[in-house]
Structure formats: C-alpha cells, structure tokens
Amino acid sequence: MRKLILIVLFCIGLNTSAQTGNQVKELFLKIKKDAKIDRNDTAVYDIMDEFYQKNLQAENDEMTPETIQRIEKLASNPDTKNLHILLLFLMYQQHISRTSMVGKAPDTEFQTEAMTLLENESREIYGKVPAIIYVYKAEALDGAKKKEEAKTVLDQGLKEYPDSVPLKVYRYLNTKDEVLRNDLVKNHPNHWMVQQFGIK
C-alpha cells in the first residue's frame, strides 16, 4: 500500500514542504484562501472515504487504478471544490510515505496538527468527519505518547463509525478491552491490521 500511495503522490506532483505543526497550519491557511468552498459538493469527502474503505477498512489493500485516477483528477484540478482539504490530506500521506521510505519516524506534531485541521475543516464544511481522520489522528496522538487523547479520539470515532475495524484495532491496542479483542478475532480475523498487530 505504501508504494501505491507514493505512486499517487508522485503522479499528482504534490510538492509541499510543511515540516512542523506551525508550518502546516500556515500552508493550509494559504491554500484555503484560494479554495472554492462548497458545503454541498462532497467529491473530496467521498474520495477520502473511498481511500479509507479500500486501504484501511477492507481486509486487504484494494486500491484500484480508478481510485488513483479520481484522486489525481481531483487534486490536479484547480476548480475542485474544497480542494484545500484534499491537498492537506495528500500532504499528510506524503509526509508519512517519505519518512517511512527513509526509515524515520513521522513528526507527530505535524501529524496531529494536520489531522486537527482536517477534522475541524471537515466538520465545518460537511458536518461530519471522515473515519480516516479519526484513525490518523489517533495514530498521531499515540505516536506522541498521548494515550488518553488518543483514547478520546478513538471513542469519538467509534461513536460515529461503530463498524470501523481500524478504530476497533487501535482502541483494543490502547485499552486491551477483551470485548473488542473477541469481536476482532471472531468477526475480522483476516483483516490486515488484526494480523499485523497479532491480535488473537
């Protein structure tokens, strides 16, 4: 999956270099100034949801060339409504991919700030937050050793998305809740995250 995400980013030619939490906020606000905001246009929300469904919720990575083309088309079109949300999402993916490629840990301050911006902006424009934002924000907080904040995010996410396997996995890893473990083992034993974290 990581290689596929890198291919998407290189195809789009996204070349932004926000490296800290403050820099990402400044860059996001600059991008937002030029964005065409439309609360009724859900194309960006839908593509983030599709990305989540095919990469995180699915048992195996099911990213298709069609999804990549849709992301590429939306990201490269300056007339895309709410483009600032998609560009920040892709900047986040780029940061994670680049640090992973060179064997470095991602910058948790950058991750947390990017996800907070995406969470707030999605809620303001769409009235809801995509499941993937809860997943990524929980990862960022957990990486920053902010276990209680991560738990709060996971709880919020599971209220909105009670069937989210990634949120259940992270909630289980955070709390060791036996009910969650039993659910994951019984209902999602072949999910890639359940297997990756050795949940049995």
Task: Please provide a written account of the structure.
By secondary structure, the chain is mainly alpha-helical. It has helices at 2-12, 21-33, 43-57, 65-76, 83-101, 108-126, 131-143, 147-160, 165-175, 178-187, 192-196. Helix 3 packs antiparallel against helix 4. The chain starts with a helix and ends with a helix. The relative contact order is 0.12. Residues 1-16 have low confidence and may be disordered.
Mean pLDDT: 87
Class derived from helix and strand content: mainly alpha
Give the helices and strands as they follow along the chain: HHHHHHHHHHH
Taking all Cα atoms into account, the compactness measure Rg is 16 Å
Helix fraction by DSSP (H/I, runs of at least 4) = over 70%
Total helical elements: 11
Uncertain segments: 1-16
Sheet with the most strands, sense and barrel status: none
Anisotropy-based shape: globular
Distance between the termini: 24 Å
Strand residue percentage: under 5%
The total of beta strands comes to 0
Multimerization status: single chain
In short, what is this structure?
The chain has 200 residues and is mainly α.
Please give a handful of descriptors for the protein shown.
200 residues, disordered N terminus, single chain
